[in-house]
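lol ok so funny story. i was supposed to be doing the assay writeup but got distracted and ended up predicting the structure for this chain instead. priorities right. anyway since i did it might as well share w the group, maybe its usefull for someone
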Amino acid sequence: MFNTNQFFLNRVQSKFQGQRRLRFTTNRLSKAERLDSYRGQHSDQDTNRFEAQQTDLQARANGEARSEGDTTQWSKAGIGQPGEGKAWSRSLRSLALERGTVEIKGTNNDDFMKSDKASKSLRQGFDKADRQQQQDAFKSHFFMRSNANRTETETDAEIATGIGRGIIGDQFDWRNDSTNTITQSAFSRANPQAKQYNWHNNFDRNLNLGGLFGPQRIFDASGDASKKEVFEDGALEISYNNSYLNNLKNNHAPEFNFLGMEFSLPGWVSATVSATKSSTGEVIDLGSTTLNLDNNSFYVNLKDQLEASDNLFDRRSTWNIDVDIDATYTNGLNINLEDFNENITMIDALDVGSGYRGDVTANTFTYNNVTWGDSYDTGRIYRGRGGTDTLVLDGINKSDILEFNGSSVNQLGESEAGGAALGEQAFYGGTVFDVLNLNNGDELYLQGIEKISCEDGDIRVRANMSDSTKDQWNLQAMDVSGAWRFNRGSSDVVLVSLDTGIGDITGNPTDIDDEIDHVINKTAKNDSTSATTRDHGHRAMSVMAAEHDSQGLAGIAPNASLWAYNVYQNGESLYDAIDSAEDDRSCHQRLVFQGGIQGGSWWEDGATREEMEDIIESGSEHSFYAVAAGNGGPGGGVVLEVNYLDSVSGVAQAESDNDHVASIGALQFTGTEEIDGITNITGYQLASYSNRGDNLTYVAPTDSQSINGSGNIGTFTGTSCANPNASGVAALVWSESTDLEGGEVREILTQSAMDLGTYGRDETYGHGLLNAEAAVRRSHALEENYELASFYANDQFLA
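and the output, tada:
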């Protein structure tokens, strides 16, 4: 039967999202369907009053084919203030409950309380619930909060599991105050359209859920605002009542007799999912999943399964998702427990070409509201990559933006490091995106975008940057400011400098500049008479972790722990330094080694080569090495054991046998430009001295601003500068998810790197230039929702 509720939703949305969405919807309906949809509904455009009256609704749960007892009405006055509608009522069965046995229980006493504002069917339940079994049925389905003394208590409340996560929790959070009357309900997640209406009894409803009047159980797993619209290659989240299914499984379990005792056969519950394309009738088997009855939902991966469009100008399609839930027992018996189906819309988002994907330089992308047809597009995916990237919203004012990451533009908060708050990131392609929703219904996914430009002003997305920080080209090229919105490092991640350590500087009582005064010196100070040698390790540590006082430099991961090892003059051997760091590491800490070393002699510095290889390999779970590729080329002034065109040097060669070791080449800029006062590069090249070859992992900036122990700022050069840049980015990735192993960190960094030179990995740039934001976003996705993010492997996620 035609879904009147879906049409009604689109009618409400059209008040705020423009006429195009309404046109798209109605044009897809037959004449008979449109007549059915309009029954009992009326839109008075002249007075801006929208009402839906006397609407017969089809019950959705348990196959009950009867109409609801009462009708529903909403109104919005022309002055913009919502008007009161007629009382809203529904049967208990359509909420997946048994009828006539419901009361509301306050968290601060043991008595059930009657609500004067509850509908008739509910009030009858309040009076009748006199058995614990009946009370438990209600409590297992609704999430209630007590408001005693005007203080909400969520932890003592009964958690709604009956209809599934995101349904009751998002829509029916009931609160009661001292008068024992229902006074307010609220979303646990902000909802855009519901803010526009005052629902009777304050029942905020999510207008993006296709069925306004019945439980919905199949959603876009991304977590964005359009719960019934899924980007192609996305995923579905399907909810279920775990206690209900568990009880059914147990009730149907076959019994057997053993020595006069009755036993029930064990079994399991699985869900089989299929999809039918509305326009063609094509049926796609989406597979089966064994349900974990400790959870209340499961995911379905749609990657390479459902196509949204048939041609360039038809980029949307409707699919009916059918879910068949069965119990299977060890004797082979199979019992059907539940069947249901709902429609979702697949969207083939625009994301191909230079207009949607940037490079290491600054890029400008322009969004245009295209209206070429009913099913052309409503989704876009922009990936800015390196540099200061701007999204221009052509013809769009700030008031035309519905929300950004779940908040209105006026309420847009800041991340911990400044810049746009992370808010509700969308899970897609194994990573997360900022989400920009427009009033016209278009939905834009964003990565690497520093600024959104509207007709009436700009919205800054990137994290805060001081004037001095804006001059650090290495930060812009690797999108570090975007990564800072997630973190600036963690004390659980230790940056271990294997370099010249802390220099012994005459006249400086600490020998340490304030920018890295959080460093823990592990070895004797370097007393070389050469200031260049003495300052080498200090400069490397400032690139990685300078704390930044708004005037000096910003290190890439200033909040990470920092240990200094002098493996040069007066210091320890390389082997002993690594061994010491491993011994000093707490079990929860992760070590990122910055290897300012080059040349084959380091393989046997303090140990045999076999011993050095063993100690490096032994730390694969909790350590990561970023080692200088070597300055063996023309102008490097270093004689190495290999030809710089064929191979990286010394310990960096361990990258071939250890997936937690990376060899780092040096990238130089060939030109710069300023955008919003920020230094961006216009061209690049691999430094002529930098080693390369098939064992070069990737490149990082050289010629970066750094600071020595005397506080003097200067340019740090060579692959000696590139490897601390790479180490700092690795620390950000690991700070976002310390559950990763060292090999996973490298895999994320290589997959998210920006391709340079010949397409794909090459012997000049390796996998390309590191992109901190894209890598941290992948790490964030794995930390927040490992199951959903793992639909894409570390070498497959969208970056």
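The radius of gyration is 30 Å. The first strand starts at residue 41 and ends at 44.
back to the writeup now i swear
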